[in-house]
Design a protein that fits this description.
The protein has 197 residues and is an alpha+beta fold. 35% of the residues lie in helices and 24% in strands. The chain folds into two domains: 3-128, Zincin-like (2-Layer Sandwich), CATH 3.30.2010; 145-196, Roll (SH3 type barrels), CATH 2.30.30.
């Protein structure tokens, strides 16, 4: 067993397959990106930021991701960088322009990298259904619907068994009525639902 693969560091990407490393490092150099490996974050898997005062681009990716999740999250954030280069922030962050770039980058990576059939399936799922948030894709093959994808007044059950009716969208959360007690709660748009009621 290769112990190097088991130990992860915030200072290198040696835990990734060599071709993933070369792909990511090549893009970082070519695109002149400040790259950082982050501690695990519950709210996101990765992040892209443009700093106006320094005219710099930065991408951070969580350290705890699987190898394929790390790669796809990097590509997701790289698509934001390339979209910014083309449109200078004048388009929606996850609009059609971003989706087009994201899909092109995924297909490019598919050609360049050695992917197992399982990894290729995960990558292609993102090609066919590009997600606005890199925390929304699943590597276990399980399909699910997010609260953000529901219509207003939909009734749903969360994975924890609680049942709600969606009332209205706020910024990133949704105002919902608990079907058991009628009280109002906000639910994350990224929460996966167990089923519609």
């Amino acid at each position: 067993m290769n112990l190097k693969k088991l130990i992860r560091s915030k200072y290198n990407i040696d835990f990734l397959p060599k071709d993933f490393q070369n792909y990511i490092l090549g893009k970082i150099k070519l695109e002149r990106i400040f790259f950082r490996i982050s501690s695990p974050r519950k709210s996101k898997l990765g992040d892209y930021k443009y700093t106006y005062s320094k005219s710099t681009h930065a991408i951070s990716i969580n350290i705890d991701l699987s190898e394929i999740q790390f790669l796809i999250t990097f590509i997701h954030e790289l698509a934001h960088k390339k979209c910014y280069d083309l449109y200078s922030g004048r388009v929606l962050p996850h609009g059609k322009e971003w989706k087009k770039i994201f899909i092109e980058l995924l297909l490019e990576a598919k050609k360049e990298l050695k992917l197992s059939s399982e990894w290729e399936e995960i990558l292609m799922k993102n090609v066919y259904q590009p997600k606005a948030s890199s925390s929304e894709f699943s590597t276990d093959g399980e399909d699910y619907v997010l609260v953000s994808e529901l219509n207003i007044h939909s009734k749903f059950e969360l994975k924890n068994g609680r049942r709600f009716q969606l009332i209205k969208k706020r910024r990133t959360r949704y105002l919902c009525s608990d079907l058991m007690n009628g009280q109002l709660y906000t639910v994350s748009g990224k929460a996966p639902i167990k089923r519609l009621i």
